[in-house]
Specification:
By secondary structure, the protein is mainly beta. β6 and β7 form a beta hairpin.
Length: about 100
Amino acid sequence: MLNCNYQVGRDLELSITNAGGADTCISFLRSNIKGDYYARFSPMHGCVIVAQGEDVAPVIPIEYAFISPKNGKIYRTWPECQASKKVSIGVASCLVHAGEQ
């Protein structure tokens, strides 16, 4: 079982419990579109989309990150995330923290 916690900037915190399992759970603990970062889930490609919020300076180009609930890894594009493979390990955890810009 792989459990992952993610913190991005000041305004985004989410977790994935049992990544790759039959009962994977994505919890959005803090996500604010008016803040620096927020997240949403896309059923089309099965990934969590991390996006810049309204508080990020408009001169910064819009960038996204994609988190796979299959393995907890972060990808730069949604096709990479969609193609990700399930993780095959025992019990593990990961913590990802991306600081403020």
